[in-house]
Amino acid sequence: MRYLSIRRVSKATLALVTLAAAGCQNTSPKFSTAQPVHAICADCDWNKSQPYIVLFNYGSASVNNFGRAVVDQVMHDAKLIPPKRISIVGHADRVGSEADNMRLSLRRAKTLRDTLIQHGIAPEIISVSGRGETEPSVPTYDGVEERANRNAMILFE
Q1: Percentage above 90 pLDDT, the chain
Q2: Rounded to a whole number, what is the distance in angstroms from the first to the last CA of the chain?
Q3: Domains in the chain, start-ordered, CATH in brackets?
Q4: CA distance to 34, 98, 113, 116, 147, per residue, from 92 (Å)
Q5: What pLDDT shows up at residue 42?
Q6: Of all residues in the chain, what percent are helix, strand and coil, respectively (each to 5)?
Q7: What are the residues whose beta carbons fall under 8 Å from the beta carbon of 81, sequence distance 6 or more?
């Protein structure tokens, strides 16, 4: 029996296999160039489970160059399959007070909302919320700085 090396399979093929495993019957979905590759299918709910993640610098709600690349990808994908709604959820690491982190996470979400609006997304389809330090991507003790927790997630609905 031959085994296929993962290195020989394109990211688009892996995304297509993932779509099929999720129950998508579409044999020609559209693909974005996001890393990892997002498979975009208008006929199924796959897009809903694939957030775009923008990381932020410590204590900042400003979108850096890496974040701008994610926003560009969101705009590209939104043109392929226009979302009915976009949800943006901001997060913070566990350094600082809970109240400060809640405000910071909401500022991060609002910054991304404003950026998407500037790029042509209709404001009425965007919702924002902040989770502060309550839903970390990487569990840490209080007071521990963790870059992966300083993010905002953009989700097509």
Answers
A1: 63
A2: 42
A3: 1-43 (no CATH), 51-156 (3.30.1330.60)
A4: 23, 9, 17, 21, 9
A5: 53
A6: 40, 15, 45
A7: 30, 40, 41, 42, 47, 156
Contacts of 34 (CB under 8 A, 6+ apart): 52, 70, 73, 77
Specify which residues 155 forms β-bridges with. 87
Residue 44 identity: C
Alpha-carbon gap, residue 76 to 70, rounded angstroms: 10
- Mean residue pLDDT across the chain: 80
| CA separation, residue 21 to residues 8, 26, 41, 55 (Å) | 20, 12, 13, 29
Residue with tokens 């979302």: 83
| Predicted TM-score of the model (pTM) | 0.73
Checking if the pLDDT of 103 tops 60, the result is: yes
- 129 token code pair: 């919320």
Closest CA to 39 of 87, 94, 77: 77
- Whether 8 has a pLDDT exceeding 50, the answer reads no
For 140, phi then psi, to 5°, come to -140, 165
